[in-house]
């Protein structure tokens, strides 16, 4: 009997369907429906007998759950196993299910830090920056880059899993996933830390002190010459005196003192407070509502 091989077209069909892994997510077996739907093109190619096809589909309706993107290498290994089985290798149902269960757990822990906490915040921040400047390129950039990256990852990691077959399990037990997870977590925290200064805006308005400045330390507007000469003189004095030279009274606010101490200190403290609340299990919705309430009260009471 001629050897049955999955063509590139067959594998691409599986990869395309694999995007919809969570399309029929359920509480009993979670992603089993999406997984079974994804592998149908390969099952039809490998098993020509209807009874074998039915048995294969039942085999792939068992419990399955992992991150939807890192599921691709699991699919690649499973395709390799199914191909070997269709060509007469002694691979039973338990072996295939065992490989799936053994890989989905470790890989699930990699997907979140790599995709949700690193790749998406970076691309989203880049797109948001362009959108805030009024450019339509911002949302388009996020949509295109994210989906190209996502599908490319699905395709190439599925091909990697198909090519190496069961050998990939040796890499999983060799600490490779732990290194990837640690690296992605560090990079994600670095990016989030850099975004705090840009995205978190908080300002305290209470006045700490008001000092009357001596002559020469501020611009005497009533003594400026008229016309262009006055404007030129004012600009020259402003460049040497700074913002404190605009008025005779030098007002120092609480926010000004904090900025002199550590620029962005209030934003960092607010971010750390929110992280601590999230760690304690407080709902993000409750935190957002709380921030709105505090902001409104602060504005009404004139301390923010």
TrEMBL record:
The chain crosses the membrane at residues 176-196, 285-302. Pfam families: EIID-AGA. Coiled coil: none annotated. InterPro entries: GatZ_KbaZ_carbometab, PTS_IID_man. GO terms for cellular component: plasma membrane. The keyword Transmembrane helix applies. Keywords: Membrane, Transmembrane, Transmembrane helix. GO terms for biological process: phosphoenolpyruvate-dependent sugar phosphotransferase system. It comes from the Bacteria. The keyword Membrane applies. NCBIfam families: EIID-AGA. This is PTS mannose transporter subunit IID.
